[in-house]
Amino acid sequence: MTGETTRGARLRRWRGDRAREALDRIQRWPRWAGPGPVVVFGGLIAVVAWPSPPAAITGLDASWRAALHFAAAHRLAWGTDLVFTYGPLGFLTVPWPIYGPTSILAIIFSGAVFSALAMTALGVLRRSLSLPIAAVVTFLLVRAVAIALPPAEQAAVLAVVLAVEALRRRSVGLNVVIAGGVAAGIAALIKLSLAITLIAVAAIVVLAVAPRRPRTWLAFLAFGAASFLGGWLATGQAIGDVVPYVRGSLEIVAGYNAAMTRPLIQSRMWVLPALAVAWAIVALGAWLLARAWPRSARIGLAAVVAVVLFVQWKLALRPFPTYVAATAAGVLIAVLGGFRRREIALAVAALLVVNFGVTETRLDAFLAPRQSARTAVTQLAAAIRIDFVDERAAATRLAIRGELAIPIAVSDALAGRTTHIEPFEADVATAYPDIVWRPLPVFQSYSAYTAPLDRMNADMLASDGAPERILREYFIDPGMTIHGRFRWFESPATNLEMLCRYREAIATEHWEVLERIDDRCGDALPIGSVQARVGQPVEVPRGPADSIVVAKVTGIDASPTDRLRTLFLRAQDWFARLDGRPSYRLVVDTARNGLILEVPSSADYSGPFAYGPRVNRITIGRNQSMSPGNQVLTYEFVAVPVAHR
Questions:
Q1: What angle do CA 268, 150, 73 make, to 5 degrees?
Q2: At what angle do helices 101-125 and 321-335 cross, to 10 degrees?
Q3: Of the candidates 479, 471, 605, which has an alpha carbon nearest to the alpha carbon of residue 548?
């Protein structure tokens, strides 16, 4: 027995010695100077780690992705025709499926961003590791990025890695500053929130490295502005729409922060401490990396990490934990050199474990180089074979039509007519070229988070340029919408204009066509005013016959404490209870535009598209249980008479 134990111990020692020898041979692998190996091996890593395209071609996210391509192809005006966080080059972040020639540019752009990230990561890691090990670590980390992050967020990770490199070298050449300015200008045309992050990171680097060089700042600002304006004009936009574009995008960003946050479900609460561990590792790596740096560079790195952490903190609370986990893996690339070799293995392993858990990715799906390479080849071949663009776009349209299943009678009623699609399925316009898409500026109704955005849509419906038809889709529960909100409280001013200016032409179980008519509503008549505390039920007064009853609710304005909570944590949840129905999540800023509580049969629609029974009692509270509070709300009730037409 003792002999067997001794032989087993010797065998284990022999295996350990062999493993150490193999590791030593790998560690002695030549690092190879020059950019050639980085480009070649980084490009190969990008191919075998290539992001998979989203599976859905219809639905909420697929709809706005298709809309970005449609807007680019038809030169819609951003800021007036469309208001969104993305801009005229937003389509570059949607490389698949093929919607048309714009998809070729999207494949090239997104492929270039991901390949640049892989090459940069390999170049950074090669300083601390031998080339084979650096290649393996690069694959693991960029694959974690590819699993969860869209191209815009991949670009943000790349920007952070390059910023840390600039701080490490403690020098920023004029060519780098010019490239940064151009990137920031283009980013503002892709997604305004991305541009804000890039500009903040670039400003920190310049302050840390070259604070007293006005030429550096002037070059950055000049080339940023020139690239933005050049791209703006090249995409067919008007100079006069720049301000509306920026103002509208910022309005959506601010509204999203207040209206779209929701807590993690109880079974996923472990995600927050897991993300905290991941980002603690990143922060530790940054501290170790910068210990010997000059004070200005250390402060600059701390500021960059602080900016990224703030953004990720907000994403974690919205919650978008998959984005946060993947971004941590990407930013780790920049600071991994701060760890010793054994620590590098532990840091990478910990970040991967967090990513596997948070994204719920299976190991076989993560380690799928053949599938990734097949996807890369398919997309790159599609970009090269431009003669097949129309054929592939037709296949996409056919696939979308198959999933939407719009009856022929409905599509025929829309053919040749200017049409807006409610509440979000804008990809109908892509699938049916005979439809003339004329969207409301905030083209997905749930995105009108604020009173000005809601009013903008309502004004469009009241204008001479209003669409001739509105196509409405019924989904899930007739009274529910995204995040458990009441359908008729979404964009309430817009819904009121729709009731006044459109009547039902066709209705099926799933689709409804509204046709435009002359305004059939009269001036609003006050029918009562009530002040009530939060959580206190309020009786809804009856209006005259054939009137739409609306409640304009004020007093929900956030206190300074609430505003700080929204900025640093998440917005306070508000709910509305209508009679004995379940509580619905309430978008508080649009409540002052008027919540629709009763629709007469003369203005109502049919089947699942009808408003539903009259609301006799409304309660607004800070939680679903409607716990009483001291805050006083004011309900101004008005009746909008509807004429028979």
A1: 135
A2: 50
A3: 605
CA distance 499 to 520: 9
Dihedral in degrees, nearest 10, Cα atoms 625, 628, 634, 635: 40
**Residue 327 to residue 208: CA distance in whole angstroms:** 24
Quick count: other Cβ atoms within 10 Å of Cβ 275? Answer: 22
480 pLDDT tier (thresholds 50, 70, 90): very low
C-alpha dist (Å) from residue 640 to 501, 530, 635: 13, 18, 16
The identity of residue 139, as a single letter, is F
281: DSSP letter: H
Write out the two tokens for 472: 């409405």
Residue 542, SS3 per DSSP: coil
Rounded Cα gap, residues 364 and 24, in angstroms: 29
Task: Report which of 139, 74, 127, 76 is spatially closest to residue 102, judged by C-alpha positions.
Answer: 74
Per-residue model confidence (pLDDT) at position 11: 52
Q: Where is 633: in which H helix or E strand? A: strand 632-641
CA of residue 211 relative to chain centroid, distance: 34
Phi-psi group of 546: left, alpha or beta (phi > 0 → left; psi -120 to 50 → alpha; rest → beta): left
The dihedral over CA atoms of 157, 159, 163, 169, expressed in degrees to the nearest 10, equals: 100
- Taking 60 as the threshold, does the pLDDT of residue 274 lie above it? yes
Alpha-carbon distance of 174 to 160, in angstroms, equals 19
Distance, in Å, from the CA atom of 259 to the CA atom of 251, rounded to the nearest integer, reads 12
Cα–Cα distance measured from residue 392 to residue 23, given in angstroms and rounded to the nearest whole number: 48
CB-count exposure of residue 112 (10 Å: 0-12, 13-18, 19+): middle
Phi/psi for 619 (5° steps) reads -130, 130
Question: 282-306 pLDDT, tens per residue?
Answer: 999 999 999 889 888 899 999 999 9
CA–CA separation, 588 and 567 (whole Å): 16
Per the DSSP assignment, residues forming a β-bridge with 633 are: 532
User: pTM of this prediction?
Assistant: 0.88
Is there a contact between 153 and 191 (Cβ–Cβ < 8 Å)?
A: no
3-state SS, residue 530: strand
Sign of the Cα torsion 226, 227, 231, 234 reads: positive
pLDDT at residue number 487? 85
